Amino acid sequence: MKDQIIRKIFNGLIYIHILHHGNDDKFYGSWMIDELKEHGYNMSPGTLYPILKNMVEEGLLEKEDVNVNGKIRKYYRTTSDGAKLLNELRVNLRILVDEIS
């Protein structure tokens, strides 16, 4: 039970992390997997890419296909709607952290 709750909380934080980095600069999927790994998330491409696809479909991220050495690399960046959501989430997280600490 405890592990399931922790997993659900971390899954929500992954979305915030993606929006944060996409708001700073564009990124590609394997870079995000490595970035999340540095923060303790062990995420496979089979888990991350559907999240990114859904975030694009929801209008939170935009995707750009770029030819890199003959291969197409998908870059992601936070949209204006995604940035608005990120700001709302930051405010809500600050309020929550202040309340529980």
Automatic annotation (TrEMBL):
Q: Name one Pfam family in it.
A: PadR
Q: Where is the Transcription regulator PadR N-terminal domain?
A: 18-87
Name this protein carries in UniProt: PadR family transcriptional regulator
